[in-house]
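Memo to structure team: turn this sequence into structure tokens by end of day. - J.P.
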Amino acid sequence: MAEPSSSIALVEERLPRVVRAIRAAARRSVDDDVINLADELSGITAMVAEKFTNDKTAEGIQRAFFLAIGGVSLGLDHALEHEGDEAALDFLIEHGAEHAFQAGFRLVKELSGLPEDSLVSEYDEDVVYMQRRLKELFVDLCYADPGQNWTGYERYQRQLSERQGVQAIVRAAAWLRRHHTRGPITDPDLNAEGVIAVAIIFAVDGSGQIVARTGQKDFERLVKSVRANKPDFEAGWAALMAQIPPQHQAVMAERINNYREHCTVLQKMRTRTAMKTLFAELENYAGSELEADYD
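Reply from structure team:
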């Protein structure tokens, strides 16, 4: 009987890109360029220590150095995503580490400006909060030990995709608010998922009106109308979608498809479920987008 074969899991080494570029320099006669690169990294480290860590302690300077490594590497990975370490070295020689760092930091700054979730508060625009959020994200993505594997760029890409998805939801909800049937809603606090839920649920009556916020009285009128007139939900959603701009249609279509299958409010609306129970179900979807119009 043949002995079972043994296999060794190979872990790919993924050091920060700037470290790999410096290693590539060892295969060339670019001593002066490497010295210039080291000087640039020192200057970047000093700047990061002053602004983000602590230039008075050894620990602060080390953290700043690791952040400088990550910031430069993030810029390099973005500029040269499908190119090798030789190309990264050429980039550093031609453009400099400062250019790569600024490109990486710009990515982090733009990412920090995107919403993390669909609950938007007026504090999200507060300057102090925005600076804190930028600093935390910079540290999270760019802290790179030069001797350890680093996945900052992959995490950046993942967060960018997630936040762009959230931004699409927020923008769709903002459009619905601006076109609310009773006039634009200007409240700075926004529950984007709640706005979209209210719009989809109220669309089933087929009136063609866009409802972005509601209260118990209006909801009771909707339920009574649905039970009396038995409207075609699909026709109501089609009428809603006909008014939605192309840039928001994908978000709305995805939510309609989800609610068609899973929304308990829509499932129970045509039944004899008590109004109090239905409204409690609505609260789960609409959240803070419900107006308290009853004592």
